[in-house]
Write a structure and sequence with these properties.
Blueprint (H helix, E strand, L loop, with lengths): L3 H8 L5 H22 L14 E6 L3 H4 L10 E5 L8 E6 L8 H7 L13 E3 L18 E5 L25 H14 L7 E7 L1 H16 L5 E7 L14 H13 L7 H6 L8 H4 L7 E6 L3 H8 L11 H5 L6 H17 L1 H5 L4 E5 L10 H4 L12 H9 L6 E3 L5 E3 L13 E3 L1
Parallel strand pairs: 3-5, 3-6, 6-7, 7-8, 8-9, 9-10
Antiparallel strand pairs: 1-2, 1-4, 2-5, 11-12
Helix pairs in contact: 2-4
């Protein structure tokens, strides 16, 4: 990994608050490197480079509204204009990258691309669900496509009222960033959208769920508007020591950045606000059709929710956390119990006629932004359908699309996360 200290922390150390921020930064670096590695095919539409590199646009009008990244810099996005039959259709994708839950971790984060546009790459590749290649992205390739950069550390849901005025110089403006970007995109043509899809990965997937109905409310009433959360369905589960590690972490995020104001009022009125940031509670109130892409054995959730290093003092889970091939039968049983919890949390969506899901058994995290997992000859499939095909069937109403993989965990073919590379395909464990 790019950060040797992060590797050591992941395998042996105890995850302190600062470590969560470092992990988020390292994860983003890995995601970008993987995209550069695998998105190397030639595009099929004009005015694109060999890697579909798309420039960063800084939101200059945001300064007037106070919509600023953690460090006070301008937020940004990447935009490719649609063409042909997709000219009036829009796909927005919110970048992921974890959260910061303390002054310390937010100060670390503001010195990275996850907290400051000063560190963001000015050109990024568009692949998977963002791709212009029909062979890679058959249903959305010619739409207006936007990648929203993530620089607030609270899933675009923080509020300035909770900022500290004691010289910390941190800006908790996630909600304002969301509103400012929406305002800009509406002026660029989103306000006339015929079809629109809001999507996001990981923390961006959570942001998608939080803002889904607001997205719907900004668009024409006769537009087809839906939302897709990729690896954003984080569970409120006990870890292997019986601690609520993720619940405690989210509590700190919500308290620090005043996130409760962005959560559904009905939920906040009846329970602790930090409980309302968990997707299981969010989907109870979302009106807009939802599709959930989530691995049943999400490696991020296994490493940080089910078996965090701090709850594994003797290292029993150390090797299993890194690759399912190293899990023993008892650990596999625990992982299958975690899968059951995910399916139980999704039971409402499974019964929803307008909802869709693709729950595969791979040990992976975020699958829509990359061609190899979104739609390629080696993509994970359920009932012989890729994620792209399942999402397309759901979005366009071609057929019901609720795909749930078998109970058996899958392993990558020769390539593992420990080498920081992507999964080629999945085979039964």
């Amino acid at each position: 990994m790019a950060n040797p200290r992060l590797r050591a922390l992941t395998r042996w150390g105890k995850w302190a608050k600062k470590d969560w921020a470092i992990a988020a930064v390292g994860f983003t670096i890995i995601l970008f490197a993987l995209t550069l590695l695998f998105d190397s095919r030639n595009p099929t539409t004009p005015d694109l480079s060999a890697h579909d590199l798309v420039p960063l646009t800084l939101l200059h009008r945001a300064k007037a509204t106070g919509a600023l990244c953690l460090d006070g810099s301008l937020p940004g996005y990447h935009f490719q204009k649609g063409f042909g039959s997709g000219s009036n259709n829009w796909l927005l994708h919110i970048e992921g990258g974890g959260w910061c839950n303390s002054i310390e971790t937010c100060n670390i984060r503001k010195r990275t691309a996850l907290g400051s546009s000063n560190y963001m790459d000015r050109l990024v590749p568009f692949a998977g669900i963002l791709s212009r290649q029909p062979s890679q992205n058959p249903d959305f390739y010619n739409w207006n496509i936007v990648k929203i950069r993530y620089c607030d550390g609270a899933s675009l849901a923080g509020h300035p009222e909770s900022e500290f005025k004691n010289g910390t110089k941190l800006f908790f403006r996630g909600q304002l960033i969301w509103e400012a970007i929406m305002s800009e995109l509406l002026s660029l043509g989103l306000s006339k959208a015929k079809q629109a899809l809001l999507s996001g990965c990981s923390a961006g997937g959570l942001a998608t769920l939080i803002h889904c109905d607001d997205f719907r409310d900004h668009l024409p009433k006769d537009a087809i508007v839906k939302c897709l959360a990729d690896a954003g369905f984080f569970l409120d589960e006990l870890d292997v020591l019986g601690n609520r590690t993720m619940s405690a972490f989210y509590h700190d995020v919500v308290q620090l950045q005043g996130v409760a104001k962005s959560l559904h009022k009905k939920c906040v009125s009846r329970m602790e606000p930090s409980k309302c940031i968990f997707p299981q509670e969010i989907i109870e109130n979302v009106r807009t059709p939802l599709f959930i892409v989530n691995p049943a054995y999400d490696f991020w959730q296994i490493q940080h929710i089910l078996a965090p290093a701090g709850s594994d003092p003797h290292g029993y889970w150390r090797r299993c956390r890194l690759t399912i091939k190293e899990c023993d039968s008892t650990q596999i049983g625990t992982l299958q119990g975690f899968r059951s919890s995910l399916l139980k949390a999704l039971s409402k969506l499974e019964k929803d006629k307008e909802g869709g899901m693709f729950i595969n058994s791979c040990f992976v995290h975020c699958q829509t932004w990359m061609a190899e997992t979104w739609h390629s000859p080696n993509s994970p499939r359920i009932n012989d359908k890729t994620i792209a095909e399942s999402v397309g069937d759901w979005y366009f109403g071609r057929k019901p699309s609720k795909e749930i993989d078998c109970l058996t965990p899958a392993i990558p073919l020769a390539i593992t996360w420990t080498s920081h590379e992507v999964y080629e395909t999945c085979l039964e464990y």
